[in-house]
Protein backbone atom coordinates (compact mmCIF):
# COMPACT_ATOMS: atom_id res chain seq x y z
CA UNK A 1 0.00 0.00 0.00
CA UNK A 2 1.41 3.38 -1.01
CA UNK A 3 1.84 5.86 1.81
CA UNK A 4 0.96 9.53 1.55
CA UNK A 5 4.20 11.43 0.74
CA UNK A 6 3.00 14.45 2.76
CA UNK A 7 1.01 14.37 6.00
CA UNK A 8 -0.95 17.33 7.36
CA UNK A 9 -1.76 17.52 11.07
CA UNK A 10 -4.33 20.21 11.89
CA UNK A 11 -5.23 18.93 15.36
CA UNK A 12 -4.05 22.22 16.82
CA UNK A 13 -6.46 24.85 15.43
CA UNK A 14 -3.81 27.58 15.41
CA UNK A 15 -0.74 25.65 14.27
CA UNK A 16 -0.74 23.20 11.34
CA UNK A 17 2.11 20.72 10.90
CA UNK A 18 3.26 19.45 7.50
CA UNK A 19 5.35 16.26 7.67
CA UNK A 20 7.27 15.08 4.63
CA UNK A 21 6.63 11.35 4.67
CA UNK A 22 9.15 9.45 2.57
CA UNK A 23 11.50 8.44 5.39
CA UNK A 24 13.05 5.60 3.38
CA UNK A 25 14.32 8.25 0.93
CA UNK A 26 15.15 10.82 3.65
CA UNK A 27 12.01 12.65 2.46
CA UNK A 28 13.47 13.48 -0.95
CA UNK A 29 10.99 15.02 -3.37
CA UNK A 30 9.70 13.10 -6.34
CA UNK A 31 6.88 14.36 -8.55
CA UNK A 32 4.13 12.85 -6.39
CA UNK A 33 5.58 14.41 -3.24
CA UNK A 34 5.79 17.82 -4.91
CA UNK A 35 2.14 17.63 -5.96
CA UNK A 36 1.11 16.55 -2.46
CA UNK A 37 3.10 19.41 -0.95
CA UNK A 38 1.44 21.98 -3.22
CA UNK A 39 -1.97 20.54 -2.31
CA UNK A 40 -1.15 20.80 1.40
CA UNK A 41 -0.12 24.45 1.03
CA UNK A 42 -3.30 25.27 -0.90
CA UNK A 43 -5.41 23.67 1.82
CA UNK A 44 -3.58 25.43 4.65
CA UNK A 45 -3.63 28.79 2.90
CA UNK A 46 -7.43 28.69 2.96
CA UNK A 47 -7.59 27.56 6.59
CA UNK A 48 -7.83 29.51 9.85
CA UNK A 49 -4.37 28.39 10.99
CA UNK A 50 -2.12 31.17 12.26
CA UNK A 51 1.23 29.45 11.76
CA UNK A 52 2.70 26.41 9.99
CA UNK A 53 5.50 24.01 10.94
CA UNK A 54 7.27 21.89 8.31
CA UNK A 55 9.31 18.87 9.39
CA UNK A 56 10.25 15.40 8.17
CA UNK A 57 9.49 11.85 9.23
CA UNK A 58 12.39 9.64 10.25
CA UNK A 59 16.05 10.69 10.04
CA UNK A 60 15.76 13.35 7.35
CA UNK A 61 14.16 16.73 6.89
CA UNK A 62 14.43 16.63 3.10
CA UNK A 63 17.26 15.19 1.01
CA UNK A 64 16.27 17.36 -1.97
CA UNK A 65 15.38 15.99 -5.38
CA UNK A 66 15.04 12.21 -5.52
CA UNK A 67 17.87 11.20 -7.86
CA UNK A 68 16.01 8.01 -8.75
CA UNK A 69 13.92 10.28 -10.98
CA UNK A 70 16.98 11.75 -12.74
CA UNK A 71 16.97 9.05 -15.42
CA UNK A 72 13.52 10.05 -16.66
CA UNK A 73 14.09 11.56 -20.10
CA UNK A 74 12.90 11.63 -23.70
CA UNK A 75 14.63 10.30 -26.81
CA UNK A 76 14.45 13.72 -28.47
CA UNK A 77 16.91 16.25 -26.92
CA UNK A 78 14.47 19.12 -27.51
CA UNK A 79 11.67 17.22 -25.80
CA UNK A 80 14.03 16.35 -22.95
CA UNK A 81 14.95 20.01 -22.47
CA UNK A 82 11.29 21.04 -22.49
CA UNK A 83 10.38 18.30 -20.01
CA UNK A 84 13.14 19.21 -17.56
CA UNK A 85 12.46 22.94 -17.89
CA UNK A 86 8.85 22.40 -16.89
CA UNK A 87 9.80 20.09 -14.06
CA UNK A 88 12.49 22.45 -12.73
CA UNK A 89 10.16 25.44 -12.78
CA UNK A 90 7.41 23.47 -11.07
CA UNK A 91 9.73 22.21 -8.31
CA UNK A 92 11.15 25.70 -7.74
CA UNK A 93 7.62 27.02 -7.35
CA UNK A 94 7.52 25.39 -3.91
CA UNK A 95 9.58 28.25 -2.50
CA UNK A 96 7.51 31.07 -3.99
CA UNK A 97 4.35 29.27 -2.84
CA UNK A 98 5.70 29.16 0.72
CA UNK A 99 6.45 32.86 0.51
CA UNK A 100 2.89 33.59 -0.69
CA UNK A 101 1.30 31.62 2.15
CA UNK A 102 -0.46 34.05 4.52
CA UNK A 103 0.78 32.17 7.58
CA UNK A 104 4.38 32.38 8.81
CA UNK A 105 6.16 29.06 8.20
CA UNK A 106 8.69 27.49 10.56
CA UNK A 107 11.10 24.82 9.29
CA UNK A 108 11.75 22.34 12.10
CA UNK A 109 14.81 20.68 10.59
CA UNK A 110 15.14 17.26 12.20
CA UNK A 111 17.86 15.80 9.97
CA UNK A 112 19.59 16.33 6.64
CA UNK A 113 18.43 19.29 4.53
CA UNK A 114 20.30 18.86 1.25
CA UNK A 115 19.97 20.55 -2.13
CA UNK A 116 16.30 21.36 -2.64
CA UNK A 117 15.83 20.46 1.03
CA UNK A 118 18.11 23.38 1.89
CA UNK A 119 16.04 25.54 -0.45
CA UNK A 120 12.85 24.37 1.25
CA UNK A 121 14.21 25.32 4.67
CA UNK A 122 15.39 28.71 3.36
CA UNK A 123 11.96 29.32 1.82
CA UNK A 124 10.41 29.15 5.28
CA UNK A 125 10.21 32.33 7.31
CA UNK A 126 12.00 30.86 10.35
CA UNK A 127 14.26 27.87 10.87
CA UNK A 128 15.07 25.88 13.98
CA UNK A 129 16.93 22.58 13.99
CA UNK A 130 17.85 19.62 16.14
CA UNK A 131 21.43 18.67 16.89
CA UNK A 132 21.05 15.95 14.24
CA UNK A 133 20.47 18.45 11.42
CA UNK A 134 22.90 18.93 8.55
CA UNK A 135 22.69 21.33 5.63
CA UNK A 136 24.39 21.48 2.25
CA UNK A 137 24.04 22.72 -1.32
CA UNK A 138 24.20 19.21 -2.70
CA UNK A 139 23.73 19.52 -6.45
CA UNK A 140 27.23 20.80 -7.16
CA UNK A 141 28.42 17.40 -5.91
CA UNK A 142 26.51 15.55 -8.65
CA UNK A 143 27.40 17.59 -11.70
CA UNK A 144 24.75 20.30 -11.40
CA UNK A 145 24.95 23.84 -9.97
CA UNK A 146 24.14 24.98 -6.46
CA UNK A 147 21.81 27.63 -7.91
CA UNK A 148 18.57 25.76 -7.32
CA UNK A 149 15.11 26.32 -5.83
CA UNK A 150 15.94 29.83 -4.63
CA UNK A 151 19.17 28.99 -2.78
CA UNK A 152 21.32 31.54 -4.63
CA UNK A 153 18.89 34.29 -3.58
CA UNK A 154 17.94 33.20 -0.08
CA UNK A 155 21.19 31.78 1.33
CA UNK A 156 23.32 34.96 1.05
CA UNK A 157 20.46 36.93 2.63
CA UNK A 158 20.47 34.51 5.55
CA UNK A 159 24.22 34.12 6.19
CA UNK A 160 26.04 36.69 4.01
CA UNK A 161 27.73 36.35 0.65
CA UNK A 162 31.11 34.99 1.78
CA UNK A 163 29.66 32.08 3.71
CA UNK A 164 27.04 31.46 1.03
CA UNK A 165 29.69 31.28 -1.71
CA UNK A 166 31.73 28.83 0.37
CA UNK A 167 28.74 26.56 1.02
CA UNK A 168 27.56 26.66 -2.58
CA UNK A 169 30.97 26.17 -4.21
CA UNK A 170 32.15 23.35 -1.96
CA UNK A 171 28.88 21.56 -1.24
CA UNK A 172 30.19 20.65 2.21
CA UNK A 173 27.93 19.72 5.10
CA UNK A 174 27.15 22.32 7.76
CA UNK A 175 26.19 20.81 11.11
CA UNK A 176 23.63 22.16 13.58
CA UNK A 177 26.17 23.99 15.75
CA UNK A 178 27.63 25.87 12.78
CA UNK A 179 24.16 26.56 11.36
CA UNK A 180 23.25 28.34 14.59
CA UNK A 181 26.52 30.22 14.74
CA UNK A 182 26.26 31.64 11.20
CA UNK A 183 22.56 32.48 11.39
CA UNK A 184 21.29 29.78 9.05
CA UNK A 185 18.86 28.77 11.81
CA UNK A 186 17.22 30.84 14.52
CA UNK A 187 18.12 28.26 17.18
CA UNK A 188 19.18 24.65 17.60
CA UNK A 189 17.97 22.20 20.21
CA UNK A 190 17.91 18.49 20.96
CA UNK A 191 16.03 16.00 18.81
CA UNK A 192 13.48 15.55 21.59
CA UNK A 193 13.09 19.29 22.07
CA UNK A 194 12.68 20.22 18.40
CA UNK A 195 8.91 20.01 17.99
CA UNK A 196 8.11 21.50 21.42
CA UNK A 197 10.38 24.43 20.54
CA UNK A 198 8.71 24.77 17.14
CA UNK A 199 5.25 24.79 18.72
CA UNK A 200 6.33 27.32 21.33
CA UNK A 201 7.57 29.63 18.59
CA UNK A 202 4.44 29.08 16.48
CA UNK A 203 2.13 29.79 19.40
CA UNK A 204 4.00 33.00 20.25
CA UNK A 205 3.42 34.12 16.65
CA UNK A 206 -0.24 33.08 16.69
CA UNK A 207 -0.95 35.22 19.75
CA UNK A 208 -0.39 38.40 17.74
CA UNK A 209 -3.31 38.08 15.33
CA UNK A 210 -3.63 36.94 11.74
CA UNK A 211 -3.92 40.10 9.62
CA UNK A 212 -1.03 41.97 11.20
CA UNK A 213 1.10 38.82 11.15
CA UNK A 214 0.39 38.28 7.46
CA UNK A 215 1.19 41.92 6.65
CA UNK A 216 4.43 41.67 8.63
CA UNK A 217 5.48 38.55 6.71
CA UNK A 218 4.50 40.08 3.39
CA UNK A 219 6.20 43.38 4.18
CA UNK A 220 9.41 41.70 5.28
CA UNK A 221 9.70 39.68 2.08
CA UNK A 222 8.78 42.68 -0.08
CA UNK A 223 11.33 44.93 1.59
CA UNK A 224 14.10 42.38 1.12
CA UNK A 225 13.74 43.39 -2.53
CA UNK A 226 13.07 47.11 -1.94
CA UNK A 227 15.16 49.43 -4.09
CA UNK A 228 15.62 52.02 -1.36
CA UNK A 229 14.95 52.84 2.27
CA UNK A 230 12.28 55.29 1.13
CA UNK A 231 10.44 52.56 -0.78
CA UNK A 232 10.62 50.24 2.23
CA UNK A 233 9.25 52.93 4.58
CA UNK A 234 6.46 53.73 2.14
CA UNK A 235 5.29 50.11 2.31
CA UNK A 236 5.60 50.10 6.10
CA UNK A 237 3.53 53.29 6.37
CA UNK A 238 0.73 51.84 4.27
CA UNK A 239 0.67 48.65 6.34
CA UNK A 240 0.47 50.62 9.59
CA UNK A 241 -2.32 52.86 8.29
CA UNK A 242 -4.25 49.79 7.15
CA UNK A 243 -3.93 48.15 10.57
CA UNK A 244 -4.82 51.35 12.42
CA UNK A 245 -8.05 51.48 10.42
CA UNK A 246 -9.13 48.12 11.81
CA UNK A 247 -9.43 49.51 15.34
CA UNK A 248 -7.09 46.85 16.68
CA UNK A 249 -4.50 49.29 18.05
CA UNK A 250 -6.53 50.62 20.96
CA UNK A 251 -8.45 47.39 21.54
CA UNK A 252 -5.41 45.12 21.72
CA UNK A 253 -3.26 47.64 23.58
CA UNK A 254 -5.97 48.03 26.21
CA UNK A 255 -6.55 44.28 26.49
CA UNK A 256 -2.84 43.66 27.02
CA UNK A 257 -2.43 46.41 29.58
CA UNK A 258 -0.34 48.82 27.51
CA UNK A 259 -2.66 51.80 28.06
Automatic annotation (TrEMBL):
InterPro entries: ClpP/crotonase-like_dom_sf (IPR029045), Enoyl-CoA_hyd/isom_CS (IPR018376), Enoyl-CoA_hydra/iso (IPR001753), Enoyl-CoA_hydra_C (IPR014748). PROSITE patterns: ENOYL_COA_HYDRATASE (PS00166). Pfam families: ECH_1. One of its GO terms (biological process) is fatty acid beta-oxidation. The keyword Zinc does not apply. Gene3D superfamilies: 2-enoyl-CoA Hydratase, Chain A, domain 1, Lyase 2-enoyl-coa Hydratase, Chain A, domain 2. Keywords: Lyase. One of its GO terms (molecular function) is lyase activity. It comes from the Bacteria. The keyword Lyase applies. Belongs to the enoyl-CoA hydratase/isomerase family. This is Enoyl-CoA hydratase. It comes from Paracoccus alkenifer.
Amino acid sequence: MLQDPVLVDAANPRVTVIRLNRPERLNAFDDAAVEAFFAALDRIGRSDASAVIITGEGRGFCAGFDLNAAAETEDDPVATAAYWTGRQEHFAGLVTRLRALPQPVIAAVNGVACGAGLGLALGCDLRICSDRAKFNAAFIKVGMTSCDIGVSYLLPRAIGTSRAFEMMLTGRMVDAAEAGRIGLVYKSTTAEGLMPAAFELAESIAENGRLNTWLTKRGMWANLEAGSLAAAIELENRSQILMQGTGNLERVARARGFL
